[in-house]
Amino acid sequence: MLSSKLTDRPWKKMLWIAVIAALSYLPHTLQLTYFRDDWYYAYDALVGPAGVFRYMFAGDRPARGPLFELYQALFGMAPTPYHLAMLLWRIAGGMAVVWLFHLLWGRRSAAGFAAGALFGLYPGFTWWVQGIEYQPMVASATLMVISLGLTIKALRLQRSWLQVTCVAGAVVSGWLYLGLVEYAAGMEAFRLCLIFLVVSGPELRSFGSRARVALRTWLVYLIIPVGFVLWRFVFFASERKATDLGAQLGGFLADPLLTGLRWIMNLIVSLINVTLAAWVQPLSNNFFSGTLREQAFGLGLAFAAGVLGWLLLRQDAASSVRKKTTTADNWQMHAIWLGLAGLLLGIVPVVVANRQIALPSFSHYALPASLGLVFAVVGIVSLISDQHVQRAVFGGLIFLSALTHQGLGASAVREERTIAAFWHQMVWRASSISPGTTLLVYYPDVDYGSDSDVVWGPANFVYYLQAQEQLPVRVQISALTPDRGTLDAILAGKDVQESTYRAHSMIIDYGNVLIAVQSAADACVRVLDPRWPTYSLADDLALRSLATSSRLDTVEVSGSGAVPPASLFGTEPEHNWCFYFQKAASASQYGKWHEVAAIQDEIGRLGLHPNDQIEWMPFLQAQAYLGDLEAVKEIATRINTEKVYRQQACSNLTAMAGHGYPLPPESQAYVNELFCGGTQ
Description:
Number of helices: 28
Structural class: mainly alpha
């Protein structure tokens, strides 16, 4: 049992929320670098001139520009401070909920602690691993709770300068949270619900009289949504349809029935995702895909967080018994109804914008509504009469939330390390990549969907991090996503497009595509050579039709090599098989077959070998060209273990003559016998 002195004040419970959040987030927070869209934020800021963030958000959410400029002034673009700031915002949000609960139901400190912990650990928000881009969302969620709390605090005070200060603070923080996240606007109606709950007096026994007083009180705070709407939708012209109220409502006016039905369906889906799916989908999608070591580590920390939450609630229950507090009021039902109202009001603006809260892509839309969710959950669980069961449920929810974030963090760190390892190999392979190149990259076990910045971001950090004076910033190496649309576009012919997004632009040249693939984390990166491409059994089948489109001439192997920044990519890996494979592939690009053979001698002395036998291909080509039949036979015993690899050896060795590297007659005959069935 924890000492009662550690939990007898609301501010002490707030500190325990920080401990639980640290157990849930901190281990992976300290390991994360740039994740997904963080790459373009960081690249634009580091390469572009001053004012890049104001330029980035000038067309849709101008309030975010100064926020990011403040961060940049404080931290530069080093990733760790942003991730720590993300953690601090989540902790501050949980603390603010404890305070809000204390203002509403002062004696229900255990419920307030549970609500604060669950808000700070809400498992439906999966993008906390993206430390830069989602700063405005977590800041907005915390400022939202602070603004609501200041409103209730002002109502609890007598007329004084302190009350005026609280009202002013509520208005300013209200403008700030809406300026950062406009789809949180529904929570201004939730403010009215809170005011309705708090106003009291002997003359306010009827619903109507109470509603009238609540509305009169709320009029003071109406300046928040009215002021925001006037600024956001009257004086400011949005360039993005997704944040343009007129464009969104235009669809409803054009077809009210169809749009209304779509809104209803989106509302249902969003409600399911914010509530039920949030506790299941992120956990099942991330935690169980990790290694046993990661799972054991995460399980231990999540269990510690859940047990700590259970102990704190148990201590609070013991203190309540000693103080003889009662549960005569109907606060649980108030919390439930408030929570349901907050859920709906938090979701409706998203739905009206013709979006839905989908996991994980749009999990950030759930943050405003998550306040309503924790109110409802705490109210429902608190109705359980058995205190032991009640505490077990709260502890279990904290455990599941922490376990979800352990899985999310481990998955993100694993992806970042996979990408870092890929680019270390690319640097071994290519000292430079020509500007104007369009990359098509297949990372191992990384489904990056439409987030092509996880390709061009690292590429430009490695090869083109020189400062520029113009806006938008010109990205020197662009990238495509590995999907059917990309395949069709490349095969269709040489099409050139300029793509501009926020503060950067790039040229996407479908006729100047360089294709690189890594089939598994323990395999080597292969830059496809259209003269004699190599495919692994684990490769996407679409690669076979794209191989001749890979522009190997964009790869330069001479000169001083690029050095990936250690703060993002870690230190250079040891020189294992893949290091020598990349050097052999570089030499084979220019037909330096003696160098390739010398590299094979070196790996033989070191006792190195590949995990994918297709990686013997450049060595096989070198030995066949040089006429070393014993070496060809030795490599054949490895490559011929797979029929597909044997067929590739036949076609690649045969193709060498057409590109200026004919095999000696005896080598050609031997190759025909070993790989081509003696028919060539």
